[in-house]
Amino acid sequence: MDEKRLITFVDIAPEPGGEQRLRQAMATGPKQRSWRHATWSVAAAAAAAVVITASLALQPPPYRDAIADAVAQATQPVDGLRLSEGSASRLPSATPRVTVYLVQATGGNMQN
Amino acid sequence: MAIDQTDITECYRRIHRPLHNVLMRLLWDGPECQDLAHDAFVRVWNRAGTVDRSTLDSLVYATALNLAKNRLRWLGLRRLVGMEHVDAARTEEASQIDSPALRQALSRLPQSQRIVLLLSDIAGFSTGEIAGMLAIPAGTVSSRRHNALRRLRSFLDDSDG
Q1: DSSP assignment of B82-138, as one string?
Q2: CA–CA distance, B148 with B74 (Å, rounded to integer)
Q3: Is A62 on the interface with B (CB under 8 A)?
Q4: Residue B29 DSSP class
Q5: How many CA atoms lie within 13 A of A58 on its CB side?
Q6: B44 contact partners, CB below 8 Å, separation of at least 6
Q7: Across B25-42, average pLDDT
Q8: Percent share of chain B, pLDDT over 90
Q9: What domains are defined for chain B?
Q10: What is the DSSP letter of A10?
């Protein structure tokens, strides 16, 4: 290092017995990951993926109700009126092919 | 070239003490630092077939530092959710390390700067060795150490004044 050591750190001695512990750990030789271990890992990951995919597939999508409403609205008969909390009364018309209604809302929704 | 038990044992005798000192300034917990250093040596031993003798020291340090960073992340998470309690023994043990002002100043350093400072000033690694160990450019090592010393001096001056 280019700069001088300006900070003095206290030297801490580790507890004895560490080398003995390490020797014991090394006594059985390096633990290599076996192919069996790797296979189990892959199998577990695949199983988890299947469970997650299945649970997502079986769950109804949150927008399904919205789509159903939109479809129902779009397929309403175009030659009629559907009233909710309102009233419609037919008025006499001079032209036979034209029907005139008086529509009065009573505070609810009206859909056409 | 692969390493054997003798290489690991010699490496342990050579670097265990400075490594313990570095880890202590990150975790402030003796038994935990010893476990962590042990785990680092065992992990390197388990890859003995692919480890080169010339990079053994650096590899053990890098492994131990990664383990320490993971541990700090885990402790931070536990503290965040209120699961980590202050251990009286641990606090007492930590109070015997360095001066209180230096301890506090070190704790306030960003982790990246603290690690560079500890590797250079406790473990005695050169800029190039630290750069290789942390996989960062040598210039970054120098600037991190420079900034760490500057901030440390500033913290210590504040605590004196």
Answers
A1: T-----HHHHHHHHTSS-HHHHHHHHHS-HHHHHHHHHHHTS---HHHHHHHHTS-H
A2: 24
A3: no
A4: -
A5: 6
A6: B8, B51, B56, B59, B60, B63
A7: 93
A8: 65
A9: 1-97 (1.10.1740), 98-161 (1.10.10.10)
A10: P
Prediction ipTM score: 0.81
Q: Answer for the pair B118, B64: CB distance below 8 angstroms, yes or no.
A: no
pLDDT tens for residues B53-96?
A: 999 999 999 999 999 999 999 888 877 777 665 554 556 666 67
Q: B8 and A12 in contact by Cβ < 8 A?
A: no
CA atoms within 13 A on the CB side of B60: 30
**Residue with tokens 């700069």, as numbered in its chain:** A3
Question: Does the predicted model carry a pTM greater than 0.90?
Answer: no
The answer to whether A9 faces chain B, any CB pair under 8 Å, is yes
Residues 6+ positions from A55 with CB-CB distance below 8 Å: none
Nearest to A22 among B31, B41, B146 (CB): B41
Which chain A residue is nearest to residue B129, measuring alpha carbons? Answer: A1
> What is the number of residues in chain A?
112
Q: Least CB-CB distance to B20: which of A1, A3, A12?
A: A12
Using the Cβ of B85 and the Cβ atoms of chain A, whether some distance falls under 8 Å is answered with: no
pLDDT of residue B58: 94
